Amino acid sequence: MFRNFGLFGLVSLVLVLTISVSGQTDETNGEVMDTNGAAVSGAKVTLRNKQTGKEVKTQTDGTGSFSFRELPVGNYVIKADAEGFSFTSREISIPGSSTDIKLQLSVGNINEKVTVTATRTQISTIDTAVPVSVIDRDEIEQKNLNTISDIFRTLPGTSTVNEGAFQVRPRIRGLDSNRVLILVDGERLNNARTSTGQSGIEPGLIETEQIETLEVVRGSGSVLYGTDALAGTVNIITKDASRNREVGFRFGAVFNGYVSSNESGRRGNLAIDGSSKSFSFRLAQSLERYANYFSGDPNGNQIDGVNADGEVLNSQSHGSNTQLTTRFFFDDNNDLKLNYERRRAGNIGSPTLAGVFNGFFPYSDRDKFSGRYEIRNINKYLANITASAYYQTQKRNFSNILDVPAAPPFFPGEYQFSETVTDTRSVGFDFQSNWILGMKNFLTAGVSFFRDENSDDRYLEVFTGNYAVFPPVLVRTEDFSPSVPNSKFGSFAFFAQDQYQASDRLKFVGGIRAERVTSRSEPTTGFSLPAVVSLELTPAEIDGLGLTDFDAGLNVNETTLTGDFGVVFKATEDVSFTGRIGRSYRVANLFERFFTGAGSIGGFLVANPNLKPESGINIDTSVKFVTSKFAGSVTYFNNTYKNFLSSVQLFDDNGVAFLNSAGGLYQTQNISRARIQGVEAEFEMPLKIRKGFITPSGNFTYLRGDNLDSDQPLNTITPLKSFLSLRWQNESNRFYADWSTRIVNKQDRLSASFLISNGGAEPGFTVSDIGGGYTFRHETYRLSVNAGVKNVFDRYYNEQFVFAPARGRSFVAGTTIEFHNK
């Protein structure tokens, strides 16, 4: 049925395309006034071409007037802002709105949010058909984050998995991080070797001080970005090397520092940059170090891996990051960007895994080379072409130690050391074109490709008891068999998305994607079905599980056709209604399809070459409000999924568990249909007081998950989360102070089996933070100091469905010192 929908979407896009003649206008004029009709002089006016992304800027004169000359015909967003006022923006068409543009500013401090992730082009968040959150650099600095993943605790519809300064990962609308696509500058960070459950790719591979903007799109992103964008898409946009349009060469330097008292954490980053009209560069180096963190006051809550004083053992990490970005500007319409990033992280612990069982990463390294060439204003139909390519290596070592003490004379103890080094090499390219097809159509189309190539080195040393003698003695064995064969995972896709402006108030957005995904394994020395498995199962049972000759190599090809359709209706300049229906999917990765060996859950996990892709039908409806005095949105979503992947225990025809004495036999299988639905709401309301503003803000999320096959609740779904904040700032925006509280309600709507294994419901919690800071801006330098207290009341709590306790009270501070010559 959805295949027909995708074809219908393609035909619809063709039918709505029209062609018109393009040219230039001589002059575009306007004026900026306040709510009393007085002229606002010195206001910044920015005009952005929606098709090409090119911006032109000017300022109002003493009468509040402004003008632009020789603008190409097209659709634009015009924005005006001035100190002490809220921004104002609106869409205009040229010609059509080329004279007498009147913009009105109100006292306030609500800022416009612009996203490039939701549509692959710059667009205001109020004009998107999907829910999106955008966190800019100022917010990142003011929040004093340990790691960028901490931000997901405060956004609507999101939460986190795991703890520590490196291993925190996002969860979106109840789905774990492997079902979330993470991009860096629009390029995939996910690799196909990461495991399932509470694993997945770590955003900690991107150092926090290198990030300019974080964009989180909730809901399907498969049409534009492909597999893994099942629950949402996260785009981490790093700092760039900006162009200097003035005469001469401009130099600058920036220092960012951060300290946290809880885990004696510290992070420092130094960057230098330079720019002219034709060339720019940015070189940055950072270092970071975090010791074990401390939970809130345990107050008798003792668990393994946490000392009586709250120290969470094995939660440390160290790291460094180097980034070099260069840009060449051949003219106003052609530029080339080259980027190299080197990330080194080491001594990364898995919080609370200490004692009898210890798991850690001795290192997790990432190197990436990337390049992007962009051409703008090619002709009256073709607005923009962007071609980008990257090569990335990610190499990490995961080690674990099992050390069971001896109990003489009958038990000699047990010892096991396991080391798995995964080496994943990724290559990819993306070609995107933006077309102006008449005044009403803007088409984005292109192709994308990526391939992950993985090889594993594994070493296992085991000391087990020989009970044939008394007293029993330990016997040593070694095993070099990899758990995953040498394998490749890749994709080639075509995508197209059309924005059709039916009227000034009504816009339709439709897209399709055709993608072919390949999973290929090669015969690999040492990779085979474990003897303990092949001896217990009959040949018929092995064949029924798809394990016959799977170690001889496998080639699986899957083709998907995906589409979505959205509507944006602007009831007024301040209120819009949006809706979207789309299909999402996720193809099983190399771990899920091929892993064969002892599993972290105990027992043995065997491969499953026959896995089907997970898929979903996602519906989002929203109403959004943006005025100078209030901004907010309410979203209802209903997402239905099928073929969810999960590791399940295997039984024979008589219901007897295989390998029961050895912990059981497990396999990843497509097991269920599920529905996750909910409501997300957020608001911001600045109130003018004497010489400043008080701004209440917050967001609320309600989630409900159901297993449609078993008629049981879905687990790992946080039901109700609220985030409330109260902020004061002065009119010049130099000083600010804020208080925030996060409230997570108890989750007792869980499956019966989970309630038993979990020991009951998942507790709720309330945690509060305070902060404040000072920023001084000058024409050539900026000084910013931010300080605060995290977990003010030192609460002992766990993020829901995370075993390790969260960080306790911590005094944090960050500073930014920035300098540029004129």
Quick take:
The chain is mostly beta strands and 822 residues long.
Describe the structure.
The protein has 822 residues and is mainly β. It has seven helices and 43 strands. The protein has a 22-stranded antiparallel beta barrel. The longest helix has 15 residues, at 2-16. The radius of gyration is 28 Å and the shape is globular. Mean pLDDT is 88; it is low at 1-22.
Topology:
Layout lengths: L1 H15 L7 E11 L9 E6 L5 E5 L5 E8 L1 E8 L6 E7 L6 E5 L8 E2 L7 E2 L7 E4 L1 H7 L14 E4 L7 E4 L7 E5 L2 E2 L22 E8 L3 H4 L6 E7 L11 E11 L4 E11 L3 E12 L26 E15 L2 E16 L7 E20 L5 E23 L9 E24 L3 E26 L6 E7 L7 E15 L4 E16 L9 H6 L2 H6 L9 E17 L4 E12 L3 H5 L2 E2 L5 E3 L7 E13 L4 E19 L15 E20 L2 E3 L2 E16 L4 E2 L6 E11 L4 E10 L7 H7 L6 E13 L3 E10 L19 E11 L2
| Total DSSP helices | 7
Distance between the termini: 61 Å
Low-confidence stretches: 1-22
Amount of beta strand: over 45%
Strand-pairing-aware structural class: mainly beta
Overall geometry comes to globular
Q: How many strands, which pairing sense, and closed or not: the largest β-sheet?
A: 22 strands, antiparallel, barrel
If you average the pLDDT, what whole number results?
A: 88
What percentage of residues falls in helices of 4 or more residues?
under 10%
Radius of gyration, CA atoms, in whole angstroms? 28 Å
Number of E strands? 43
